[in-house]
Amino acid sequence: MMTKRELRKVYREKRLSLDEGHREQLDSKLFHQLIRLDWSGCNYLHVFISLPKYNEPDTSRFIKWIQNHYPDIKLVLSKTDLLDGSMINYLWDQDTCIAQNQWGIFEPVGGEIIREKLIDSVLVPLLLADKKGNRIGYGKGFYDRFLVNCRDDVRSIGLSYFDLVEQIVDTEEWDFPLKYCVTPDKTYRF
Questions:
Q1: What does the DSSP 8-state code read for residue 168?
Q2: CA 124 – CA 155 distance, rounded (Å)
Q3: Is there a contact between 188 and 180 (Cβ–Cβ < 8 Å)?
Q4: CA torsion angle for 94, 96, 49, 158 (degrees, to 10)?
Q5: Which fold has domain 4-189?
Q6: β-strand 128-129 against 98-100: which pairing, if any?
Q7: Inter-CA distances, 44 with 75, 104, 153, Å
Q8: How far is residue 72 from each of residues 40, 66, 126, measured CA to CA in Å?
Q9: How far apart are CA 146 and CA 81, in angstroms?
Q10: Could you give the angle at the alpha carbon of 127 between the alpha carbons of 133 and 146, nearest 5°?
Q11: Domain ranges, ordered by start, for the chain
Q12: What is the SS3 string spanning 100-147?
């Protein structure tokens, strides 16, 4: 079994090696898995804007679908506070100005702050997850710190191009497990 660090290295390389055509196929399958979830009770949906340079799953098609099919759902986008490792959540609407931070992550410049307790569902970027819902992200812990401040019933939904691994052996007490992991071929519920 591999450690988080080893798995992060292997799966980052795997994801970066995916060519554009293969990624487009995987993104289409992820999209079809996502739209099968029940979005009817969601008022606030936290999303992320994918980073093409890291070959992250593309969320843009799903975000447009939500806006068209569930116009009452309010989208939330975070800005990272690099001083304390937290995420400040903003309502994402037509007036929101978006800019890239020093890591190239698209974030709101300002706007209406949304408290974590209002958020019903969160799309979580990651590299992979295990069969218990433990996830491997980029290793900075931003989403762990964010999710622990959300309601207990928040739907944390990871997006991964890869199937689940059996077990991530070196999880820590502060690692926040997912409630769902959406892969191209299956949606897992934990």
A1: -
A2: 10
A3: yes
A4: -90
A5: Rossmann fold (3.40.50)
A6: unpaired
A7: 6, 25, 13
A8: 10, 9, 27
A9: 11
A10: 65
A11: 4-189
A12: ECCCCCEEECCCCECCHHHCCEEEEECCEEECCCCEECCCCCHHHHHH
Amino acid type, 167? Q
Prediction pTM value: 0.93
List Cβ neighbours of 52 (8 Å cut-off, separation of 6 or more): 58
Report helix, strand and coil shares of the chain as percent, to nearest 5: 25, 25, 50
Residues 142/125, Cβ–Cβ less than 8 Å: no
Would you say residue 174 has pLDDT above 80? no
CA dihedral angle for residue 127, residue 79, residue 106, residue 73, rounded to 10 degrees:
90
For the segment 28-64, what is each residue's pLDDT rounded down to a tens digit? Answer: 999 999 999 999 999 999 999 998 889 999 999 999 9
